[in-house]
């Protein structure tokens, strides 16, 4: 049971042994395949999470409902040779985020419906996050900035989402109460900071104050008690807090553990809780290990994994152009150009994150650390281009010198025969190198 796993993890962590787990927050096919294969190789659970934007009752931007996504994960796990009990499904930012343009009542109704569908589909770790203001919550600031909701409002809405989850869980007789929760009002911006935000703050992203986190925990406990959810509150394993580590389109701010000393002292006083750290992408292994040691025992990652996939895909497109560009009978994928056209034709997923000159947007949309390109891989044009790229390279092969040129970190694996020089394996291996960093930071090793 997931409750047993996390209670053991937290118990180990609280005993003084730095123990953690990382959550892969992505619905990307390449990332999911790499994560499941890696979990099998190291004999560790695969914690896979989806956001309300990625997966919802309206199919999100990935085309998945919760039931379809859960089925996709299980089928992918079977193909990867991973046992079903090693798959942990969870949610990331499950709340009002996708429906901020609606009134709070409408947004919460949709969020509760999504919670119910997730639980019935087999999701068992729920990060409940109704912290995003809705249309009628707070008047818009002239600058367009909406301040955070009062913690009491967030706590009340969190309890309502939890009540929905518990009711749905009771219908799953074989896994009744096998739900765990993550809460928090100090929630980092999903997907990293928007362009310019980090430059405006000399210290990077803010760090949650211990006082604010304690107020959040008190407010949550009261709201859960008012909703007769004391049993569910006992299954709350983590609270989200801002670590100061984050990234934007073209900058990375590293984790500085001295800035979280007060948070570390606070969480030590809560024997059943750890912190969940968001926006850990692009941190070094030593920084991630420091986070785990400092009680940020659940690390969330996603953009750096799809970023690695994009790096590999574009490197393969460069190899394709070099090897096959002179063959008049071959139609090249032109993958980077296709992706740029798709993104500029429909800028909905990046226009609030990237601003600047045409020259800046020309490269940052494809290469930015925010990796807004991840929203476009499921588009028909994108899928067609990737399929053509793989078909061309599988048909004509990938020369080792060009692997060394464009994917130098994978060249040794190809030379020794550990990595097959096929596009599928090279993309998977590129992502796996990042997964290994997280695995090591969490104190895991191959068993």
Q: Which descriptors would you attach to this protein?
A:
447 residues; alpha/beta; TIM Barrel; GI Alpha 1, domain 2-like; 10 strands; globular
Characterization of the model:
This protein is an alpha/beta fold and 447 residues long. The chain has 2 domains: 2-301, Aldolase class I (TIM Barrel, Alpha-Beta Barrel); 307-438, putative tagatose 6-phosphate kinase domain like (GI Alpha 1, domain 2-like, Orthogonal Bundle), CATH 1.10.400. Helices cover 47% and strands 10% of the residues. The protein contains 16 helices and 10 strands. It has helices at 2-14, 29-42, 66-80, 104-121, 151-170, 210-226, 230-233, 261-268, 285-293, 303-324, 335-345, 358-367, 380-396, 400-406, 408-415, 423-441; strands at residues 21-25, 46-51, 87-94, 125-128, 180-183, 236-240, 246-247, 252-253, 274-277, 298-301. Strands 1-2-3-4-5-6-9-10 form an 8-stranded parallel barrel, surrounded by 8 helices. Helix 5 links the parallel strand 4 and strand 5. Helix 2 packs across helix 3 (66-80). It is globular and about 70 Å long. Residues 198-203 have low confidence and may be disordered.
Supply the CATH superfamily name of the largest domain.
Aldolase class I
Element order, helices and strands?
A: HEHEHEHEHEHHEEEHEHEHHHHHHH
- Mean pLDDT across every amino acid position: 92
Task: Report the uncertain regions.
Answer: 198-203
Helix/strand-derived category reads alpha/beta
In helices, the fraction of residues equals 40-55%
Number of strands: 10
Name of the top-level CATH class of the largest domain: Alpha Beta
**Total domain count:** 2
